[in-house]
Amino acid sequence: MKGLEISFRDIEHSDAIEQTIRDKAAKLTGTFEDITAVRAVVAMPHNHSNKGKLAHVSLEIGLPGETVAITHDHHDNSEHEDMYVAVRDAFDKAQRKVRKIHNKRVDKSRRAATL
């Protein structure tokens, strides 16, 4: 996919996680063709000792005229000890946000066409 950038912070690079991100980004850009770029940052920051290490996945989705930022940081969600769950949840949230923007744009263009 053109315009995909993946970074790993505080965690070693994982080919499996990278491939999961590539697959989810391809699905997202296949659904919304106006996406120009996707930037994913995968991190396993140091958390408090009473909680396990929780994954943090943030995304920036480039659209014409704007960038959608997804910072999916659930300090209290123990499911995010699994990196794959954190990636899935971040892309699910991204899809909802991009769909909302896409629907607004389509609705505006429909209203403009009826005037």
Automatic annotation (TrEMBL):
InterPro entries: RHF-like, RHF/RaiA. Pfam families: Ribosomal_S30AE. This is HPF/RaiA family ribosome-associated protein. It comes from the Bacteria.
